[in-house]
Design brief:
Length: 281
């Protein structure tokens, strides 16, 4: 502070300083609920880190679901430009989620063992928002509904997402509306089942990539989908690396094989034709 100068008073610049009966920043964001939602079950120093990491990840996933759902609707309604922004934002959300692993990695195996027993059977494997993201993207596995059977509202929501078209289904439908010859079995397939790569879809995307100026919107849509899956794959890989660093090859708290299970998930491809065609161009 400069000598002889009074301390800065933000009220003199018009800042609101009294909130009796008025909405404040904390009121708007419901910070009383958000900041009291962390309830460690042990005295371990690192348990708060573990809770905050996963709670904030769930908040980012909530936003990702918001954007992915809106993008799917926009594509179905031929509003392609708004879908680009929503998909770009979804990719950046997963970039943010990737950065969060760096914080969790500061926790050592010794740190984790001080509170691991307090977790009981809870596990990230049971994240219903993560499951919803996979269903929306097109990776649908009915067996993954079982961990949520004890919460009917969640189970029914996920089951509904399983029965609806995915983001990729709508992208393929757009190819059909754009005049590309897509196999009838794909156009009228049971969207509740996992998607299987198809030659007619690969041929259509190949045409888009070979004639980008003619099919610029479809080309940009394809790249936005690849961008999303790129960041999503990185998130999965960082998840595997973090888990291996913290618990090695122990079983996960939810009963999965831990790292072995997570490594299997690295082989899942959401938009297979968009990756396969790169070897053909």
């Amino acid at each position: 502070m400069s000598e002889g100068r009074p301390p800065y008073n933000p009220e003199e610049d018009g800042a609101q300083m009294s909130f009796d009966g008025r909405m404040s920043y904390g009121d708007y964001l419901k910070l009383d609920k958000v900041l009291t939602a962390q309830a460690p079950l042990s005295d371990a120093h690192d348990e708060l880190l573990f809770i905050v990491q996963h709670q904030t990840s769930e908040l980012w996933m909530k936003l990702a679901l918001h954007e992915m759902t809106a993008a799917k609707t926009a594509i179905a309604e031929n509003r392609i430009q708004p879908a680009f922004k929503m998909l770009a934002r979804t990719a950046r959300i997963f970039e943010q989620l990737n950065s969060a692993w760096d914080v969790l990695r500061t926790m050592t195996p010794s740190d984790y063992t001080t509170f691991r027993e307090a977790l009981g059977q809870s596990s990230g494997f049971q994240s219903y928002q993560y499951r919803a993201i996979e269903f929306l993207a097109g990776n649908k596995n009915a067996a993954m509904l079982r961990p949520h059977a004890h919460v009917p509202k969640v189970r029914d929501w996920l089951h509904q997402l399983q029965k609806e078209t995915s983001l990729y289904d709508e992208a393929i439908a757009l190819l059909t509306r754009s005049g590309f010859a897509i196999d009838e079995g794909i156009v009228n397939r049971n969207v509740s089942e996992p998607y299987v790569a198809n030659d007619s879809v690969r041929a259509a995307w190949g045409e888009v990539y070979r004639n980008t100026e003619t099919h610029w919107q479809l080309y940009e849509l394809a790249e936005k989908l690849v961008d999303f899956e790129d960041y999503f794959r990185r998130w999965r890989f960082n998840h595997v690396t973090t888990v291996e660093r913290v618990i090695g090859f122990k079983r996960g708290t939810g009963g999965t094989s831990g790292v072995t299970y997570l490594r299997r998930m690295l082989d899942v491809v959401l938009f297979p034709e968009l990756w396969d065609l790169r070897a053909e161009l």
